[in-house]
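Researcher: Please translate sequence to structure tokens.
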Amino acid sequence: MASNNINIDENIFRDLQRFYGSIFNLPPLAAKIYAYLKFDFEKKGLTFDDLVEVFSASKSSVSENINLLLKHNLIKNSESYNERKRHFIINGEYVKIRFQEIVEKMESEIDILDRLHSYRNSPDESLNEKYSIYRLLLTKNIENIQDSLKKLYNEE
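Model: Translation complete:
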């Protein structure tokens, strides 16, 4: 694999590829591109031609996988003023986007469960206690995620 001035550790690269392929349900080439860009610590980015060369893949395959990563906000374009070529880099805001989506899903779940719990109106104290514990679990996780995101993105 050509390096294009990015030094990578092959073992970490393979682990990243497997992990991100699994967690984001990415096809193999998209997972490779994403894992490879994680090693671009200086955020210089790689061009489309760089990625074609690095992975010895067809232009159409690289294009399709770049578009998938862009669509899911995993990477973004970085255009240089003195170059006409787009450079692709990891989206530094992705963690924020990802966890905001998780918070929204948990908030939605709380809303639905609150309505269901109210509708059911069960006299079973054990069931009501389990509901309260689960609701508290969701609420505490929402608070923890929101607090952590504020710290990560200096929003306090």
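Researcher: Any highlights?
Model: The first helix runs from residue 10 to 23.
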